[in-house]
């Protein structure tokens, strides 16, 4: 191969590599923080809501799932998200958008006895992201309905206590609320165990989050 052609080929390859790297670096990073509903407990074919959100947002976004089953927002809860490596990973990733969907496990009796700390802990969680150099936009989600008591989760606590607190926390932190409770009312069929949505239920979650971001 003549040196001129080889040089041209090398420059084209280098340019393509630079463009590819540039595109990867400019993607809008979306961190989905949450519990087993975000993680995708029981969802077939990996069709979690973050996966479906990625499809809706397209290639200019990079959506990552930081969901961990059983975790609480409460620092004194039985399994606080605060203590997990994934929390630190999410902070270090420097996301541009943060979706927080926590609170379901906090409704359990052993956790909700610390309900006086819920607002304070949630505000601190939001602020831990807002103070990042990436200055992400933070969304906090009203938890989806618990259709029946299961795994110790209390549907009435979610409905009557956690939902109003989410509104108060949003006002305090100037975060935007995403209502994942109302769109899933009456969709008991989309959560066979009363708590965790199917892929079809996750499609509704993804759509609501997508509408908020876009």
From TrEMBL:
A Pfam cross-reference name: Lipase_GDSL_2
Taxonomically, the superkingdom here is Bacteria
What sequence ranges are listed for the domain SGNH hydrolase-type esterase? 32-203
Per UniProt, the keywords (alphabetical) are: Signal
Spell out the molecular function terms from Gene Ontology. hydrolase activity, acting on ester bonds
**Which InterPro entries does the UniProt entry name for this protein?**
Iah1-like (IPR045136), SGNH_hydro (IPR013830), SGNH_hydro_sf (IPR036514)
Tell me where the signal peptide lies: 1-24
- In Swiss-Prot or TrEMBL terms, this protein is called Sialate O-acetylesterase
């Amino acid at each position: 191969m003549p040196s001129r052609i080889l040089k041209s080929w090398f420059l084209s390859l280098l340019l393509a590599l630079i463009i590819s790297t540039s595109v990867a670096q400019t993607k809008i990073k979306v961190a989905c923080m949450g519990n087993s509903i975000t993680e995708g407990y029981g969802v077939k074919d990996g069709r979690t809501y973050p996966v479906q959100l990625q499809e809706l947002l397209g290639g200019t976004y990079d959506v990552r799932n930081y969901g961990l089953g059983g975790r609480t927002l409460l620092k004194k809860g039985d399994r606080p998200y605060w203590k997990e490596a994934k929390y630190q990973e999410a902070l270090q990733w420097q996301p541009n958008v943060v979706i927080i969907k926590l609170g379901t496990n906090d409704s359990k009796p052993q956790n909700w006895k610390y309900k006086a700390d819920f607002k304070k802990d949630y505000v601190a969680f939001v602020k831990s992201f807002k103070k990042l150099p990436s200055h992400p936009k933070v969304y906090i989600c009203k938890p989806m309905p618990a259709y029946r008591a299961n795994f110790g989760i209390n549907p009435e606590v979610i409905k009557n206590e956690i939902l109003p607190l989410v509104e108060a926390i949003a006002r305090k932190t100037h975060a935007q609320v995403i209502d994942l409770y109302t769109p899933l009312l009456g969709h008991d069929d989309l959560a066979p165990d009363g708590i965790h949505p199917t892929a079809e239920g996750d499609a509704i979650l993804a759509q609501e989050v997508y509408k908020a971001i876009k």
